[in-house]
Structure prediction request, 179 residues.
Amino acid sequence: MCGRFTQRLSWEELHRLADLVGQPRNLAPRYNIAPTTSIEVIRPAETSGNELVQMRWGLVPGWWKKSLKELPATFNARAETVAEKPMFRTAFKTRRCIIPASGFYEWTGNAGAKTPHYFSARSGEPLAFAALWEQAKHPDTGEPLTSATIIVGAANNWMNRFHDRQPVILDWRDANALR
Prediction:
């Protein structure tokens, strides 16, 4: 699974890779992003191109009414079941997105003595994690809440020695196929 990742990105870089529209902004580097925190997400803009927006990492479905403390872990969605699981199936049909990442971590070893391993693109370009997003009302405040989840699949042969799952990584040429 992907439980921590980094976003050391520039607007110019993402604009070039994903046809971003909107006002350019400075993006602060983040080196240890944890679930339930705010992340940068690329989704289709209302007219054309893509927009970069901040969302909560951990999908909150539109029908969720309980406290967020009662929400099961939704920061990853399994590729094999994402289309059928009630937590993800509506977003899978209509709200696909990309979570740009500089890299991600996996750990090996026993509790208390785990070793982190960092994975990134050999080229240094950002990775494009396949993802889903959702719009809901915050169950505690009633405020609008946008959230996202990373789609994960079985690890490839190389990654399998570190973990049995990994993020589904898209080619940036497919960034405009999110609609």
